[in-house]
Fold:
Amino acid sequence: MLPAGWLHAASLAWPGHGAALWWLQLLSLALLCKALLTAPRRRDGALLGWLFGTSWLAGTFWWLFTSMHTYGGLAAPLAAAGVLALALFLALYYAAVCALFKHFSFTHRAVNALVFAACWLLAELARGVLWTGFPWGASGYAHISGLLFPLARWVGVYGIGAAAAGLAMLLAQVRRSDLRDPKIWAMCGYGAMLLFGLHAQRQLTLNNYRHEQPPLSVALLQGNIPQDEKFQAGTGIPLALQWYSRQLYASQADLTLAPETAIPLLPQQLSPGYLDGLRSWFSTWGDHRAALVGMPLGNAAQGYTNSVIGWSPAEPSAYRYDKHHLVPFGEFIPPLFQWFVRMMDIPLGEFSQGALVQPSLHWAGERIAPTICYEDLFTEELAARFAQEAQAPTIFANLSNIAWFGDSVAIDQHLHISQMRALEFERPFLRATNTGATAIIDHRGNVVQQLPSAQRAVLTGEVTGHQQRTPYARWMAVTGLWPLAAWALVVLGLALWQHRRDKLRCATS
Structure:
């Protein structure tokens, strides 16, 4: 199961190429399903799920080692142990649902697929929500293109993951005789027609949509400040202050974005006039231009926030967004883990949380909603911004600093996360990052422009906002993830009822 888990990790972003490989994800999951079907006992199923989950997750976020060891100063054995311990813990969800699947042991292939899809969905939801949630590398992210991506506007990344799990279970049960069975071919045809119909309906909706506002010119700044210098007074800080201010003043775009903590100092630590000069430039002298810039705010008495500030003629006083979903150990310290954080050298390790729903920046007829770092990973939290159609974002702007993880596959994985959000909500995503991936993603989920990683550069282009809410945005804004969890529980409840009924029939016959 370890090789199958590694293949699953590779399907999310193939190392060195960055592509998400949906067919490889189905293959790896089908290998797990095949092993589950032949496993004799529930504890064997649990072990298979745990091994698969551990190798998949460790192979997905191995780059956490870089942040803890290279930049956090944690000893290499402890950093490696930390990554493995996290993977082992999160893999317990998959161990539990694989054992649950083995509990039923249905002979009907379609029922098996449905039950496994429900089990897999529960594990993915649990990983995404419990203990602040860490759904990085969920199965659905392998499907930003290919077979199942039309489902995104209806059921999102978790629904796609469940569909992939069910399809993988069907593949695992294929027999040679099926190649001569017309019923099997008919079922495949119906499935293909359904996916084609969803894709055609999506294309028709997007092609018929007309946005009222003209395209917005944008400039996305990628400073490429090395992480080990970023907060150093003699190197990274003066470089960042000088380079970003120069690019902000020189930008000719309607909207300019600078990444998370582009300004690496608190306002009170800056030289007099630094922020006032930028505010004055964009509010008065900036020729009707706007900017969003990442920087920390606050003080020791009131607490600190990881924030985005914005300036425009429409915002005489600075616009502000405070990060809502904070990173454990990086931005807040979980209870009983202060000892672990003290072993690492991470600046400003304790932030205050912003509100779940905060106003967008209203500019040039668009509503631009910032997200910081991995906030765009939490689809249910972004969906909450769509509760009121008149205030729903027309453009998302993600400001990140992935330099903590080096020039690793984390850059490609995060890009795919933003692409999935674009598919779910049919909103363009602007990504301004320190080292990559700085990119423009359209409302169809396509990367239309991207800077090379680990280079200091400015990406200029255009983006067109989007107003219509997808079915996914509509129901998620009201209910969150509960309908997905309810569907899985109903399926498993019916399966349990049928399982007990079959056992009773066997006992009385």
Q: What stands out?
A: The CA atoms of residues 370 and 397 lie 5 Å apart. The mean pLDDT is 90.
